[in-house]
Amino acid sequence: MKVKRLIALDVMRGLTIALMIMVNTPGSWTYVYPPLLHAKWHGCTPTDLVFPFFLFIVGVSMWFSFKKFEQGITKNSLYKVLKRFFIMFLLGVFLNAFPNFDFENLRYLGVLQRIAIAYLLGALLCLQFNYKQLLFIFAGILIGYWGLLFFGSTDSPYELTSNLVLKVDVLFFGEKHLYNGFGIPFDPEGLLSSIPSVATLLLGYFSGRLIELSGDTKVTIKSLVQIGAIIVFIGFTWGFLFPINKALWTSSYVLYSGGLAMVFLGFLLWIIDLKGFKKWATPFIHFGTNPLAIYMFSGIYVSFIIYFINILNSKGVLVSGYDYLFTDVFVPIAGNMNGSLLFAVFHIIIFWAITYFLYRKKIFIKI
Asked: What is the pLDDT of residue 6?
């Protein structure tokens, strides 16, 4: 199969970014439908699939983009990989710091930082080693990470307050520089848990290889769906011993989410590239052309209207622009739950309009 036929990959990338915006931008976190929330700890909701799907896509794209490099790490390839790593990582830190720039309590890690770390390690591995070697490395990462977490804590190794991921992050960064959304300082994009995220990227890389070498769309779809289903089953079964957990990015979670990503890409290839149903997917192609740039912009936008925009609401109370949009615009239209959802959908449309403008102007911001 030729690379130019992979419209499905662009659509999957765009869908993933659109869903990232949706789950990150509800009108109110008090009013969110359960599928649009992360699992509280163990388990996997549709929202928990968004991030690994994006890393999987990075891996697929890496297979095709790295063909221009020589086998083995060279000065040229190392420079390009390191440059992209630092850009993504520093932009992620900036996003965390904006707009207060409180460096005393700055969270160092985050989504863009996780993508940067996974990209760096995954890129170096894919440049240096061949396919068979990478398969052994992939298995070694998953089994090794299981062992690290199991033996890294004498008491409940997979629980929130006692896991090795937490201990490593506290040791390196201190509690004040970690995420606090779990009720205690714990970072779901932790340093140690970035290691298995590389395996998620490698699953995408293997899928890119499968797509190119199969040479036939039907064969590709069948292979992606069958292999993906097997990997999902292995991950689900492993989950009884090593729980499926996004915050820890457990090995079972890598297989479960990565296998579903393979199946979903196969489905998109079937409906778009094989059956030719493409028109519905056009907005997501626009999203997919500037994915990280629009994600970055959406984060800055949310912080801006929270901290810099203040409006008197219908009760005469001065609230942030974010709260005003929810309580005085969308709640009257659709109520609390649906108003919160409509708020998120509205912003997807707004950000799509931006990506459409960039697409029409042929402006593609590479991060």
From this structure: 79
Residue 71 has pLDDT above 80, yes or no: no
Q: How many domains does the chain have?
A: 1
In a domain, 302, yes or no: no
DSSP secondary structure letters along 122-181: HHHHHHHS-HHHHHHHHHHHHHHHHHHHHHT-SS-TTSTTT-HHHHHHHHHH-GGGS--T
Q: Per residue in 88-141, pLDDT tens?
A: 999 999 999 999 999 999 999 999 999 999 999 999 999 999 999 999 999 999
For tokens 């079937």, what's the residue? 270
pLDDT of residue 273 exceeding 90, the answer is no
Whether 160 maps to a domain, the answer reads yes
- 66 within some domain: yes
Phi, psi (rounded to 5 degrees) for 200? -60, -45
Query: Is residue 61 domain-resident?
Result: yes
Instruction: Report yes or no: 119 and 197 within 8 Å, Cβ to Cβ.
Output: no
Could you list the residue range(s) of the whole structural domain that residue 177 is in?
A: 3-296
Determine the straight-line distance between the first and last CA of the chain, rounded to whole angstroms: 27
**Three-class secondary structure of residue 59 per DSSP:** helix
Of 42, 23, 25, give the one whose Cα is nearest residue 34. 23
Write down the pLDDT at residue 2.
43
Query: 1 and 217 in contact (C-beta within 8 Å)?
Result: yes
Contacts for 221 with CB less than 8 Å, ≥ 6 apart: 266, 269, 270, 274
